[in-house]
Write a structure and sequence with these properties.
globular, alpha+beta, about 120 residues
């Protein structure tokens, strides 16, 4: 089930999906997640929302990464992922979007349930 969620402190709907997803998944404020990722990006010489930066950040938080099939018919949607993983906390990457899943619900600004994830991080 989709849960509309926007932890952005100013309620902005901007290109901050990685920050939103990580803030929700790690139970941090949007600003804490933003500054943590900016610090990590600065160290890595990359943008805070690059897969390499937020992946390293989640790995340091103890998360584990898993790959999903990129080609259909083996591919699944975010909605199907939620059905398949009804327990736990995850951050899903689709290639150009990130979304948090908690206990089978996906938290996002819009219903991203039809998107196709290519990898995910099990956070808790």
């Amino acid at each position: 089930m989709w849960v509309r969620c926007n932890p952005n402190p100013l309620g902005k709907q901007t290109g901050d999906c990685v920050i939103r997803a990580i803030a929700i998944a790690t139970d941090r404020s949007w600003r804490e997640a933003y500054w943590d990722l900016c610090r990590m990006g600065s160290i890595q010489g990359d943008l805070p929302n690059s897969d390499a930066v937020w992946g390293l950040y989640l790995r340091e938080q103890g998360a584990k990464q898993f790959l999903l099939p990129e080609s259909c018919p083996a591919c699944i949607t975010v909605r199907a992922f939620c059905d398949r993983y009804p327990e736990g906390v995850y951050v899903i990457g689709t290639g150009d979007h990130a979304v948090c899943v908690i206990d089978g619900d996906h938290y996002d600004l819009f219903d991203s349930g039809g998107m196709t994830p290519t990898f995910f991080w099990r956070v808790k």
